[in-house]
Write a structure and sequence with these properties.
mainly alpha; three-stranded mixed beta sheet; 5 strands
């Protein structure tokens, strides 16, 4: 690593064509080399029904989906080129490899069933974006569309990384000043993490449906079979992580300009667009401080942190006790967010 392999982009990125072309040639070379590494280690097996050529075809498909997502964002922000430039530079710097998830992690129910980001320690801590290539079709999305969704989802976490780091810094600052205990600071960050997960899913859903002939389904009221929000219903139209959608929408409406948006999906979509800014967390904190609600923001995010940890518990990644607390947490977010809802939409 690194290796460059000629990759011909299929979309017109205007003045960014050369830069995008060079990035995808590097990404292609690194990703195909990593696939060879996975095969050699036995992480991805060559089988009679899946010859080596099929594996390389699958790797190429992930590269094309990554290009599609970048073009989707380029088109979305043609009138705001600084946003696309930030996204492009971030992806270039932090995603040298996009590859298939190991066979052992592709079974339904596995913690990282859809995909994950991690570093390969044996390759000098090489950053990896790994996607499950074997997803089944859902009621509304084909298998290919769901793969496209989770390519965008994992890249979304990369885009959000800068403001998640700011959230950590602010929590540490409050802890150092004695305003929060260590546990409270952790829960504050978990609250931002809940937003990160819901926002990346929202962006992924929008992208995936933009490549289909189907409209996104309406939000429907549902309950969770894994114990999230006991004795409570919540609304979602997400493919996954639906338990995070309602609290994210409630939080979105506390921000200026979003409070008056009546359609839930549109409110969350606006939040997701704002979160493409690297200063998103700082902007949220500054807005609450301007409104003299800084302490309210801390309390709200701490409760949202409970919901985030309960979501982890659904995957077996945290204590099941958080699931029992999630229902009360949802009620608290509903009441706090309604009180803090932005009804004036005053700029500052």
């Amino acid at each position: 690593m690194p290796l460059t392999v000629r990759y011909d982009i299929m979309h017109d990125f205007g003045k960014y064509n050369k830069e995008v072309q060079e990035y995808f040639s590097r990404l292609s070379g690194n990703s195909l080399m990593y696939l060879e590494y996975q095969i050699k280690k036995g992480d991805i097996a060559i089988r009679d029904d899946r010859p080596k050529s099929a594996l390389f075809s699958g790797a190429g498909r992930l590269l094309r989906m990554t290009e599609q997502y970048m073009f989707y964002l380029y088109t979305k922000f043609k009138k705001e080129p600084q946003k696309f430039e930030y996204i492009l530079k971030t992806i270039e710097a932090k995603v040298p490899v996009i590859a298939m998830l190991e066979d052992r992690n592709c079974d339904p129910g596995h913690t990282y069933y859809f995909g994950e980001r991690r570093v390969e320690k044996k390759l000098n801590n090489l950053p990896l974006a790994l996607i499950n290539p074997n997803l089944y079709a859902s009621r509304t999305l084909s298998a290919e569309s769901r793969t496209r969704l989770y390519v965008a989802h994992e890249l979304g976490h990369v885009i959000n990384e800068a403001w998640m780091q700011d959230a950590n810094k602010y929590a540490n600052y409050l802890y150092s000043k004695g305003a929060l205990t260590k546990q409270e600071a952790e829960m504050f960050v978990y609250g931002f993490s809940m937003l990160d997960e819901a926002i990346t899913q929202e962006r992924g859903e929008e992208f995936a449906y933009s490549y289909t002939r189907s409209l996104r389904p309406r939000l429907v009221s549902t309950t969770d079979s894994k114990g999230m929000y006991p004795d409570h219903t919540f609304e979602t139209n997400f493919d996954w992580y639906g338990e995070l959608q309602t609290p994210a929408i409630l939080f979105a409406r506390t921000l200026r300009g979003i409070g008056k948006i009546r359609v839930d999906r549109n409110a969350l979509n606006e939040l997701a667009n704002r979160a493409l800014s690297p200063t998103f967390a700082k902007d949220v904190i500054a807005e609450y401080q301007h409104k003299d609600h800084a302490k309210d923001l801390v309390q709200l995010l701490k409760v949202m942190g409970i919901i985030r940890r309960a979501s982890y518990a659904r995957f077996g990644m945290d204590s099941q006790a958080w699931l029992k607390e999630s229902g009360d947490a949802l009620e608290s977010v509903q009441s706090m967010a309604e009180e803090l809802r932005d009804k004036e939409s005053v700029e500052f």
